[in-house]
Specification:
Largest sheet: 5 strands, parallel
Number of helices: 10
Distance between the termini: 27 Å
Number of strands: 10
Shape: elongated
Low-confidence stretches: none
Radius of gyration: 28 Å
Helix content: 40-55%
Amino acid sequence: MKEGTILIVDDEELIRNLLVDMLEKAGDYNLLTASNGEEALETFHQKEIDLVFTDLRMPVMGGMELLAGLKKHNPEIPVCILTGYGQREDVIEALRLGAANFLMKPQEIEMVYPITTQLLRIRKKKRLEKRIYDFFIQETQTYQIPSDLQYTLPLIDLVTEKIERVGLCNQTELMNVRLALDEALVNAVVHGNLEISSRSKGNTLDELVQFNQLVKERSAIEPYRSKQVRVSTSLTPNQAVFSIEDDGAGFNWRNLPVEFEDVEALSNHGRGLILIRAFMSDIEFNEKGNRITLIKSRSSSIPSDSAA
């Protein structure tokens, strides 16, 4: 099996042949060549390329334009610039645009093999990082955070970071899951542990400022400061389950609205639950009403992974 497919782009046939000869002797690579950027892009679209070496100044299409085209179609493709000593400023610009390394020709041509080894190793690692999620089976996490809203968003990032990677949902659905979790965690902290009614928020800017100040004050005093929120998660390729439990007295969740028709309820404590119901596949409450379980199932538009 070949160690990788390398595309060498240079308008000088001597340089192309020299690099091909050196790499053929050094490793087992599939080597392709092009004499300008336009020809290289055509090859790139037809073949699966792992690494590109390209000169900067070539007829038809130069290396800088080629670099932009390669990165547009595949931002992760490693590109090494071939350049002479009179093109130092161009090299810096290419590196800023995403080039991975450079070779000064002809003096540094012999470094083509170590650079190839380095860049292909990094390329392979990135590919394996994506493939490793094909073997994902299950992950569980448990956190216990204080009643302080500064911890909710970092926690949401932690418990949802693998959801899209394992193929459970797309980016838009992932954003909705995070919004639903934010609503649930804020409810657990503010309404559950700090015992602040959502009606205290009011409708004016001054009332909202006072509400936020009350939240900060209660987070710092007893008995509210000692109360915590427990978050347990379970993730499989087909379902994500988030359980959020506070130390509050609970509430009668059966009286909350499930439809948008109840405008009165939507103006206060029912709004968050409407959003959660809309974004998640299902939700459940315990009898007391101080624990909510949010369930997100795999979207029907995303095929299930047979490996899972």
